[in-house]
What we know:
Strand content: 5-15%
CATH superfamily of the largest domain: N-terminal domain of the delta subunit of the F1F0-ATP synthase
CATH architecture of the largest domain: Orthogonal Bundle
Number of strands: 4
Oligomer: single chain
Shape: elongated
Helix content: 55-70%
Number of helices: 9
Amino acid sequence: MYGSKAALRYAKAVISLAKDKNQTKEVNEDMTLISNTIASSHELEVFLKSPVIKDSIKKDSLEEIFKNVNGITSNLFGVLIENKRIDILEMVASKYKQLYDEMNNVQVAKVTTAFPLTPALESKIQTKVRELTGNEAKIQNIIDESIIGGFILRVGDIQYNGSVNAQLNNLKREFKNNTYVSKI
Length: 184
């Protein structure tokens, strides 16, 4: 993916500076805001990537959109613009959030279900993740109706597939391997 390595380098530099100034949490909140804002606004994404728009206009616009961000975050805008890398701002924010979560031993648990998770199910999944990994996890719910029912849980390298679709496929394989059933 274009800019991924550069985004990671910028994110590492920002988190290092935030650690030195004891402001990692505040900067993480800024990065979450930036990431969500750019992801939800296609116009802003196109604006930042446009080679036609002057860098000074981009910087002024970002400072106006994100008025209340931390000084470290505000300085990041200037550094990215100066280095002609403002187009990777969203990626830098995303990488920062990943580094922040790693630093605080918070993992992302991706839970694929056929329907949105209820708060009760989310707390059960949180308990299971804590039991498996010993750490807290942010729950990211992915809706995929093709799994029919049940869920698929992914935390780091661990994956548990308890979907109805997987169980049906296992049953289908067993029937194919069974010589008595396959003759029918």
